Amino acid sequence: MNLRTRRGALSAAGLLGTGIALAACGGDTASGGAAAPAASSGPVKLVYWGAFAANLGKAQEEVVKQFNDSQKTVTVEHQFQGSYEELANKLTAALQAKQAPDMAVLSDVWWYKFYLNKAIQPLDDLMKAEKVDTKDYIESLFNEYVQGGKSYALPFARSTPLFYYNKDAYKKAGLPDRAPKTWDEFVKDFAPKLKGAIDPKQFVFANGGYSAWIFQGVIWQFGGAYSDKDFKMTIGEPKGVQAGEFYRDSIKAGWAQSVKNDTDEFKQMNAVNIINSTGSLVGILDAAKGKFEVGTGFLPEGPAGFGCPTGGAGVAILSGLAKEKQQAAMQYIAFATSPKVQAVWSQQTGYMPVRKAAIESKEMQDFIKTNPNFKTALDQLPKTKFQDSARVFVPNGDQILAKGLERILVNQEAPSTVFKEVADTLTKEAEPVIKARKALGA
Amino acid sequence: MERREEARVITIQALRVPRPATVPSPSATPAWSRDLLVFLAFITPNVVTLCVFSYWPMLRNLWLSFTYWDMIAPEPLWIGLDNWIEVLTSATFWTVLRNTLVFTVGSVGITIMIALGLSLLLNQKRRGRNFVRAAMFAPAILPGSAIALVWTFLLAPYYGLISQGATALGMPMTRWQNDPYWAMPTVILVIIWKSTGYDAVIFLAGLQGIPRELYEAARVDGANAWQRFVNVTVPGLSPVAFFLTVTSILSSFQAFDVIRVMTGGGPVYATTTLIYQVYSEAFVGFNAGRAATYATILFGLMLAITVVQIRMVEKRVTYE
């Protein structure tokens, strides 16, 4: 009997632990933590959280190294934190633990959350002191981080979706060496020809990755939108649903497959068409080297014409730093977004240069001539638009939309029901944002 | 019957423990208070740790379930029962609950069956027995995330060993981890692979603890192999089986690493269990209040299951 009660108590105690251990799950926070305050004599030390892996990570390390070598007053320590999502996750925990870094890369869907919570600081005075030529930044990209007349980040690794195709497969199918102009052309002409020409193991098109970002373009191409500026969710309206039907049919008709990682499928020649970030360009070209030829094009047009969002990440400075550190951080950001660095960074990654001077530079122009794939993104840029509030400003909006798309693509559920539910969820999730915006006077 | 037993235990203990009063006390402190001090000295560290790291977070967790908090705002916002109403009326909750049950029943049930079979085999004197025992136990000491990565490799479409084997046998190419029907069985399979060895070793220990005389007696009585299994092995193993069921169910409710690495809870919600939902609400959606609601539900469920197991099932367990 004694034994029994003791065991009962023990298992109950164990149980109690588990409900809670969850709360501790976020505990693996800032492993290097914030840098110690700099000694007055030595260089100012800054911790910078990055989100770039593989070839992008190497290029990022290179930018930091060049900065550290270029001067003696500031030392930046770059710490890789995983994907954009993982970084945002860790940053949230780090802020709670007061162990936040000094600078961080924040993607299109994350920076706003930190802005609303006053976790990142305005850069205007710092830019002025650093004599940053704000007019030389590509306006649309620069303005995306402006709130209430102030800049809260500077564009760094900015991208757009791009249509990638396997040139060898196109040749085999007797198709012209270009991306499809419209979805209609692709579905009625390209897809059947490709299907007939490629290996039965291969498939025509792969969906995957940041699906709600890619679909942002598609829904515009069909004349719909996720939401309007004021958080009225419009994804469930007929044009949005029509775009959803098109997505669902792509799977049903057998020319598209829903996969975990579309870039990998493209690199392994399983999929012969994908829509993915310009930031994947160099990785794809490297992987394809000696295996197949890669072509790129604008996104295909839908019934309502062209539609393509901007995306990618900027760099922000965390709030509450000592004056000296703030300026030092600005010094790094100015360097990383300078025309010279941007021209090199762009060639090493596929991200678009965020500076006009970088695009116009002889170096970049020469590079484009021999690498036409880099030109596609630059040519497409003027036609791109800032994304709908539902994806970039609603907390978790990206994931909510992606889940909805997955239900359509994987479970083949009806877009009319799914998008209505998604719209309801988004409306609810937007409430705190609308409140916070009012509090900030936005 | 039970009552009487209890009474007997108490009487025996009362007899064994000498009365403190019979020992002359050297100091002025009364004996009972010294006993109390000793008692406190022993339990305090434990109780304090439990309070700080278990009970307090649990209460805090319960409180959080009545708030909205994005984990950045300085203070959570009190919203009353909103989270509870929303969670309990959402289709997601029921999907997740069903997934949790399928996952638990599938992984625990099958693991215990296989483990029992394996232990019976390994309890016989056969060549290479020690090697097989060691090999079988190995997955239990590997980290779940490493196992999940290896299986992801094996299951990878086109080049993975399993996919190639399946294709060679004429099965259509399947994206096991990304298929709404196959994702859950795939995850369960990996969990079974990971935990069978451990369970089998525990069963083996249980088997070896069954006195040989019982088998001999059964044989003398003319019991055949099946009768010996049913009447000697099964009752003899029941404490071990009970222990394994309780601990396996609890750990399957908390299985996270394999799901996180292999499927991320998807596709859609296909492999999202309660614990995974807690994680994704908190650390993907940054909705600490809703995550706390799910965590509280998970806790309540585990508590209920354990209480039921201890109250009902243990009665049928034969302790020697």
Protein model, in words:
The complex is a heterodimer of chains A (442) and B (320). With 442 residues, chain A is of the alpha/beta class. Helices cover 50% and strands 14% of the residues of chain A. Chain A has 2 domains: 31-159 and 311-370, 3-Layer(aba) Sandwich (D-Maltodextrin-Binding Protein, domain 2); 161-308 and 385-439, D-Maltodextrin-Binding Protein, domain 2. In chain A, β4 (146-147) and β5 (150-151) form a beta hairpin. With 320 residues, chain B is mainly alpha-helical. Chain B is built from 13 helices and 2 strands. Chain B has helices at residues 2-16, 31-64, 82-89, 91-122, 129-141, 144-155, 161-168, 183-208, 212-220, 225-253, 257-262, 274-283, 288-312, and strands spanning 67-68, 77-78. Chain B starts with a helix and ends in an 8-residue tail after the last helix. The model of chain B is unreliable at 1-15 (pLDDT under 50). The chains are: A alpha/beta (442), B mainly alpha (320). At the A-B interface, α1, α3 and α19 of A face α1, α2, α10, α12 and α13 of B.
